[in-house]
Amino acid sequence: MFFLSASTQLGLSFWGLTKPPPDTGLQTNGFYKITRHPLYWSVFCLLFGHVFVFGSGLAVLYFVLMELYNVAGVIIFENRALACSYGDAFTAFHARTSTLPFKSLLQRKVRWEPGEAPKAALISSLVFTLVIALLHDPLLSSLMHALPTFASRN
User: What is the model's pTM?
Assistant: First the structure.
């Protein structure tokens, strides 16, 4: 959901296909009320799911290394750059929000206003999840049946 929200909000610039939009100021609404770093949480969920599905030592190592990179990126680079760019606005935003998802909402530091949820991102993430859930096993099964046939021909 966080990943689709970021890609929807930034469009082609998210994928590096166009120049990023001009600075529109510090983002403090929508998913940024839930967590200051929604894209990092989407990576965390993706990597955790990877470990959960594959359960290998390599998956765990990849998870740990990527999360160390994410945490270092937030602590060392991103927060410092945001503080330099936005000064007191970032300090106030930092004080009322949390890195942990939903913590600031549960502590009632921020309120989720009606109509504030990015409906396109929520609907597209639900549809995407449903399609993947429905097609995952049939696609994987057909792929596994095709691989031995392909390997025996070569």
Answer: 0.60
